[in-house]
Structure formats: C-alpha cells, structure tokens
C-alpha cells in the first residue's frame, strides 16, 4: 500500500499466527495474517496473507483485502435495513439493524468489520461456536453481500422481501441448525 491508500483506508489486524510446513530437514515456519481494511464510509474488505515475516504477511493481507473490497449497504441512519445471515465454512453470523444511539453491538471480528465499514448502530451475533476470526469476518462480509439494494435510488431498502419473510427464514435456518 502506498501513502495515498494508507490515508484513504483504515487497517486493523485481526489475527497473526505462526504456521509450519514439515519438510525433510524439519519444520519451515512462516506467518499468516488476517487484515480488515475499511474507509468508514461504506467500503470494507477482508484479506489473508502469508509471508516469511510478520510485516510481509500483513502487507500481503492488506493487498488481498483491497482486492476483496465490497460496498457495505447502509441506511441513512447508519444501520442495516433488515436482518441477514452470513456463512463461511463453519461460522454463521447474524446481522441486524441496531437501535439508534446504541452503537455497534457485536463481538470480536464482526465488530471490527462493522466498525471499519462505517456502521453507527448495528447488532450482531455469532451463532456458532467458531472462534476462527478470519472465518467470522468473512461470514460478516458474506452477510453484507446478501443485503439487496434497489437500483432506483441507490439507498438500501428491502427489495422483494418483507421483514417478516426475512425473520421467518432466519428462524427456520436457526431451527434446522440445532
């Protein structure tokens, strides 16, 4: 990332891990980093990078998150229009509209993604027991991708969905998981 991009986006490191591959002479160690990049104006991305040292892994992850950047749908009040579920491998995340003035009610990686996307009021719940930060962040991104936006005025609204339909499908999905 050059200096102009550094001013444009805020970066947050989710996770750094030392990983190893086994070769004939022993173990070769490298580092894996998960990074969230966002401008707090509706654009956010998550990336994972690997390198021989921590700084190269972080820079590769930042480049990857720039490639994976999405436009986060947001209402005028800085929240989501309706509840939505996102999945990534074993991680399942429920995102919903927040009450005005309450702030971001979420934990861990979901909170980081929502904060860097620019949401002011949002509620979130990680529905599985997964503690994998990168999968939880990617599940949040997948949930944000599911929010449909009407093309007429570029403001997120419920397109062909009523809130009752979304809540019923959410309840069905939760019952089928247990």
Automatic annotation (TrEMBL):
<dbReference type="GO" id="GO:0003723">
    <property type="term" value="F:RNA binding"/>
</dbReference>
<dbReference type="InterPro" id="IPR000851">
    <property type="entry name" value="Ribosomal_uS5"/>
</dbReference>
<dbReference type="GO" id="GO:1990904">
    <property type="term" value="C:ribonucleoprotein complex"/>
</dbReference>
<keyword id="KW-0689">Ribosomal protein</keyword>
<dbReference type="GO" id="GO:0005737">
    <property type="term" value="C:cytoplasm"/>
</dbReference>
<dbReference type="InterPro" id="IPR014721">
    <property type="entry name" value="Ribsml_uS5_D2-typ_fold_subgr"/>
</dbReference>
<dbReference type="InterPro" id="IPR020568">
    <property type="entry name" value="Ribosomal_Su5_D2-typ_SF"/>
</dbReference>
<feature type="domain" description="S5 DRBM">
    <location>
        <begin position="9"/>
        <end position="72"/>
    </location>
</feature>
<feature type="region of interest" description="Disordered">
    <location>
        <begin position="152"/>
        <end position="178"/>
    </location>
</feature>
<dbReference type="GO" id="GO:0003735">
    <property type="term" value="F:structural constituent of ribosome"/>
</dbReference>
<keyword id="KW-0687">Ribonucleoprotein</keyword>
<dbReference type="GO" id="GO:0006412">
    <property type="term" value="P:translation"/>
</dbReference>
<dbReference type="InterPro" id="IPR013810">
    <property type="entry name" value="Ribosomal_uS5_N"/>
</dbReference>
<protein>
    <recommendedName>
        <fullName>Small ribosomal subunit protein uS5</fullName>
    </recommendedName>
</protein>
<dbReference type="Pfam" id="PF00333">
    <property type="entry name" value="Ribosomal_S5"/>
</dbReference>
<dbReference type="GO" id="GO:0005840">
    <property type="term" value="C:ribosome"/>
</dbReference>
<dbReference type="Pfam" id="PF03719">
    <property type="entry name" value="Ribosomal_S5_C"/>
</dbReference>
<comment type="similarity">
    <text>Belongs to the universal ribosomal protein uS5 family.</text>
</comment>
<dbReference type="InterPro" id="IPR018192">
    <property type="entry name" value="Ribosomal_uS5_N_CS"/>
</dbReference>
<dbReference type="InterPro" id="IPR005324">
    <property type="entry name" value="Ribosomal_uS5_C"/>
</dbReference>
<feature type="compositionally biased region" description="Basic residues">
    <location>
        <begin position="164"/>
        <end position="178"/>
    </location>
</feature>
């Amino acid at each position: 990332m050059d200096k102009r991009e550094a001013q444009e986006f805020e970066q947050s490191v989710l996770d750094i891990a030392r990983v190893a591959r086994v070769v004939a002479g022993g173990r070769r160690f490298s580092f894996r980093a998960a990074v969230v990049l966002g401008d707090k104006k509706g654009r956010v991305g998550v990336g994972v990078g690997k390198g021989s040292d921590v700084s190269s892994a972080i820079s590769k992850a930042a480049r990857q998150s720039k490639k994976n950047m999405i436009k986060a749908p947001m209402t005028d009040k800085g929240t989501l229009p309706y509840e939505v579920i996102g999945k990534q491998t074993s991680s399942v995340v429920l995102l919903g509209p927040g009450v005005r003035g309450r702030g971001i009610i979420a934990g861990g990686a979901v909170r980081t993604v929502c904060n860097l996307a620019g949401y002011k009021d949002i509620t979130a719940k990680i529905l599985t027991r997964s503690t994998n930060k990168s999968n939880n962040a990617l599940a949040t991104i997948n949930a944000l991708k599911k929010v449909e936006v009407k093309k007429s005025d570029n403001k997120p609204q419920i397109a062909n969905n009523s809130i009752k339909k979304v809540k019923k499908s959410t309840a069905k999905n939760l019952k089928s998981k247990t």
